[in-house]
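Supplementary Text 2. Reproducibility record for the structural model of the 322-residue chain.

All settings were left at their defaults, and a single model was retained for analysis rather than an ensemble. We include the record here because the model underlies the residue-level annotations in Supplementary Table 4.
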Amino acid sequence: MASFGGTVAPGWEKVRQAFVENLENTEEVGAGVAVYHRGQKVVDLWGGAFDESASQPYTQDTLQLVFSTTKGITAIAVAICVERGLLSYDEKVSTYWPEFAQAGKGDATVAQLLSHQCGLYTVDGDISLAEALDWSTITSRLAATKPRWEIGTNHGYHALTYGWLAGELVRRVDPQHRSLGTFVQQEIVGRVGGELWIGLPEAQESRVSPMIGGLNSVPEDMDPAVKAMMEQFMGPNSPGGQALSLNGAFGVDGAFNRRDVHAAEIPAANCITNAPSLARIYAATIGDVDGVRLLASATVETARTLVTPENEPDACLIMPTT
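Retained model, structure tokens:
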């Protein structure tokens, strides 16, 4: 029997029920969930085991790598730069990052980059994990990469590269030229509070619940139709497989449990946090939380503007994503 902890506000008891049922009746091992409603925390739950061996419980103190939720945090950092007049979605990326103009990318806009339209879901040629974890190397490789399609004519999920591309934009326009991870710590976490890192300090490593499975692992209890679709787009030679593994660099078993991967800045995929911290930041992005709001309403609406065709299949995920 799994152990559980936390609180829910009156009227939110069904969330606790669903959370408990998910941990008791599926292959889920341990998890946390938090909800803010109108600026107030109404759900904060945790339960299950810290790891597959159930060596200890998943507790309020547990940290978790949250994969692509990282992209939302990175997008908030970009929006902060836009709101401060440092960056424009309509401007060419090469205005801020001249090297990006290589290989026919000179006219690509920031909006196209952030909406996965630039065809840079991987890099040209082979790349090692060590090279991918080095910021200067990976951003230089991306700047030199030829788009996989004519920019603006297609979109495909930039599973890993989104963060390096957006993060380098932030670094270029930030007056202090901070890394994306440092910018997030100082301009987002520092203002809102909580525990969240893109580039985890070694002192926090022991708190991280390890990921189970890998890029080629699909849960047995998944809906059959969804499972078949995932197995198709995750093939190693498919655009989706290349995007998810960066041409195999992240395809090694347990890559996202490695200390060097946790320590690096991968602003599309390696944010490490807990549910209440993540929920608090998102709540403070769209409204007031204890007197703090990260973005104005107009900035949020601009960032939410749809710029890719509705119901058009994603070139990497082989299904509509808008």
